[in-house]
From TrEMBL:
<dbReference type="GO" id="GO:0003700">
    <property type="term" value="F:DNA-binding transcription factor activity"/>
</dbReference>
<feature type="DNA-binding region" description="H-T-H motif">
    <location>
        <begin position="43"/>
        <end position="62"/>
    </location>
</feature>
<dbReference type="Pfam" id="PF17929">
    <property type="entry name" value="TetR_C_34"/>
</dbReference>
<dbReference type="Pfam" id="PF00440">
    <property type="entry name" value="TetR_N"/>
</dbReference>
<keyword id="KW-0238">DNA-binding</keyword>
<dbReference type="GO" id="GO:0000976">
    <property type="term" value="F:transcription cis-regulatory region binding"/>
</dbReference>
<feature type="region of interest" description="Disordered">
    <location>
        <begin position="1"/>
        <end position="20"/>
    </location>
</feature>
<feature type="domain" description="HTH tetR-type">
    <location>
        <begin position="20"/>
        <end position="80"/>
    </location>
</feature>
<dbReference type="InterPro" id="IPR041483">
    <property type="entry name" value="TetR_C_34"/>
</dbReference>
<dbReference type="InterPro" id="IPR009057">
    <property type="entry name" value="Homeodomain-like_sf"/>
</dbReference>
<dbReference type="InterPro" id="IPR050109">
    <property type="entry name" value="HTH-type_TetR-like_transc_reg"/>
</dbReference>
<protein>
    <submittedName>
        <fullName>Transcriptional regulator, TetR family</fullName>
    </submittedName>
</protein>
<dbReference type="InterPro" id="IPR001647">
    <property type="entry name" value="HTH_TetR"/>
</dbReference>
């Protein structure tokens, strides 16, 4: 008589904590899959396998891979805002702030990669109600970040949100033209190496922040004429 090995199926998550743990496992699997295959290589089948779930179970939590990416973006956004709050000490001067913000951006590539796909890909491929809920969930994160920027950088009320929005735009632009380690390759002629070097992510982002901060400092404060 031939015996068959029974493969244990994951039990259905019944409590709120169990469902939250399973959702976290799916997001962790998504991060692992993107690192291995890139965002375009992520599939729902691959996610289910990586998370140890049946494909049907995965669909109970997310209908598309873009919904998974949107959930990842919200988590990455919150983590990014928290890192900025930690990096900017009260009373920090502008150059130190530029260096701190550049370090956060450089070290948080997941947020940069998700943010660069947010409007053009992710938000275009999720149901409207999911998109609306995500926008509402992101609002307190953005407002918290704006408050941090106003407190640590001495901005007037409302200017933290303006600076934060411009900073994200600068972040995405710097990521778009990033030349990475190309400038360090020995085969590049010296004149070309210099051109490539100024397009590195850290250089472009930091220079953009300096210009943004200089512009913010020239803005008249609402109480300046009082």
């Amino acid at each position: 008589m031939t015996s068959k090995t029974q493969v244990a199926k994951p039990r259905r998550a019944r409590t709120a904590d169990q469902k939250q743990d399973r959702r976290a496992a799916i997001l962790a699997a998504a991060i692992a899959c993107t690192r291995e295959s890139g965002f375009d290589g992520v599939t729902m089948s691959g996610l289910a396998k990586r998370a140890g779930l049946a494909k049907g179970t995965l669909y109970l939590y997310f209908e598309t891979r873009e919904e998974v990416f949107l959930a990842l973006y919200l988590e990455a956004l919150g983590a990014w805002a928290a890192r900025i709050a930690e990096a900017l000490a009260p009373g920090i001067d502008d150059e130190a702030a530029v260096e701190a913000l550049t370090r956060v951006a450089r070290d948080d590539r997941l947020f940069v990669e998700l943010a660069s796909r947010l409007a053009s890909v992710i938000e275009q491929n999720v149901p409207l109600d999911t998109l609306i809920e995500a926008k509402r969930n992101s609002l307190p994160i953005y407002m918290g970040l704006a408050g941090t920027l106003e407190d640590r950088l001495g901005f007037a009320p409302g200017d933290g949100l303006r600076f934060g929005s411009a900073m994200v735009a600068q972040l995405l632009g710097a990521a778009q033209i990033d030349t990475g380690d190309l400038a360090t390759r020995d085969a590049l002629p010296e004149d070309i190496r210099g051109i490539v070097a100024v397009s590195r992510f850290e250089t472009v982002f930091a220079d953009g922040l300096r210009l943004l901060l200089a512009g913010m400092r020239r803005r008249p404060r609402p109480d300046a004429g009082a």
